[in-house]
Design a protein that fits this description.
The protein has about 350 residues and is α+β, with helices and mostly antiparallel strands. The strands form six sheets. Strands 1-2-3-7-4 form a five-stranded antiparallel beta sheet, covered by helices on one side. A five-stranded antiparallel beta sheet has the order 9-8-10-16-11. The mean pLDDT is about 90.
């Protein structure tokens, strides 16, 4: 199983949804960063289950840092954090091997790993494994903030309702303010419409997908490597570690197919003595490198596959078609809790890119 990421900055994620604990080991993180536990706790609380639009599985998600931090500072050694699982209902997954759940990893995982695969609550494939990623991302976010780099995301679209997009020159201050909102939307009207859609899906036993837009402001120019170490490829690799992500686009993305070059090109100008672009269709990245504008991208999140409506599946023992009614506790729209996960994965990718660029220390 490929549960290790990175070169200069390495992450190893471990555990299962219904195991004793989940966690992460971070190797290559610089020494000397003050570990703001309140900041980390607030970051992780935004992802934690139990909110109005999430599963009713309640987990404190308090990381126990067992190495890599001394007297409140990172010490340069591998950082290991463990998060206990305390509220599992494994009985709800008794038939997960016999009748695979649609759009889950059950069938492919049982073929790949055999009869001993652990799939209660999704096992290692569960969205619960994003909690260690958020811990790692919170640390990376703290490190990036020392250079004035801020990252924030919001729900951009659910069904046919859209939120306002980030402006191409969104500032670090605007992103920091967005993270303080009680719901990840820019416009209050979009927030109310999103809440209505999610509640409606929940009441019907269904779920909805979403598009999440993320931005990072304050990055220096020329971070990233052409060809195989591009900003796009590093961010994308981490985005697809988030179980529900099925697509990604940077800047104008797939809308480029509807443009002429004269419309698409981000032309240069000087502003306050700095080279900037008048538009930001490329999402702050050209040639795989940052160009000084905010990095902006969007990801598509599939609807939570665990829904309470009866679905078609197969019985692997009898080799016949079967019906499946899923039990357990599930999010009607996973995107609400995925917003801080997208931010965290972005912070991890950008930290790795900056460390690879110059190997600098704090």
């Amino acid at each position: 199983m490929a549960s290790v990421y990175g070169t200069k900055l390495k992450l190893s994620v471990f555990g299962e949804s219904h195991g004793k604990a989940i966690g992460v080991t971070i190797d290559g993180f610089p020494a000397g960063l003050p570990v703001d536990t309140d900041y980390i706790a607030a970051f992780m609380k935004r992802r934690a289950p139990g909110g109005a639009f999430s599963t009713k599985r309640t987990e404190a998600d308090i990381p126990n840092i067992i190495s890599g931090v001394s007297n409140g500072f990172t010490n340069g050694y591998p950082i290991c954090a463990v998060i206990e699982n305390t509220n599992q209902h494994s009985a709800s997954y008794a038939d997960k091997m016999t009748i695979p759940r649609p759009n889950h990893a059950d069938y492919a995982a049982s073929v790949k790993y055999g009869e001993h695969v652990e799939l209660h609550g999704g096992g290692h494939f569960s969205g619960r494994l994003t909690a260690p990623l958020v811990f790692a991302g919170a640390l990376c976010s703290l490190w990036l903030r020392r250079d004035g780099i801020e990252i924030a995301a919001h729900i951009k679209q659910i069904l046919n309702v859209t939120d306002s997009p980030f402006p191409g020159d969104v500032t670090a201050a605007q992103l920091a303010a967005l993270r303080e909102r009680d719901f990840p939307a820019i416009d209050n009207m979009a927030k109310e419409a999103f809440a209505t859609i999610i509640n409606s899906a929940q009441n019907k036993g269904d779920s909805v997908g979403a598009k999440i837009e993320c931005a990072a402001a304050g990055l220096p120019v020329a971070i990233g490597e052409h060809m195989f170490g591009s900003v796009e490829s590093e961010i994308s690799q981490l985005m697809f570690a988030v179980p529900a992500v099925k697509g990604i686009e940077f800047g104008a993305g797939f809308d480029f197919c509807r443009m002429y070059g004269s419309q698409a090109n981000d032309t240069y100008t000087y502003r306050d003595g700095k080279v900037v672009t008048r538009t930001n269709n490329c999402g702050g990245i050209t040639g795989g490198m940052t160009n000084g504008m905010p990095v902006i991208f969007s990801v598509a999140m599939k609807p939570t596959p665990s829904i309470y409506l009866e679905q078609d599946s197969v019985n692997l023992e009898t080799q016949t078609d079967a019906k499946l009614a899923i039990k357990g506790r599930h999010d009607p729209c996973i995107a609400v809790r995925a917003v801080p996960v997208i931010e965290a994965c972005t912070a991890i990718a950008l930290t790795g890119l900056m460390l690879n660029a110059d190997g600098r220390k704090l």
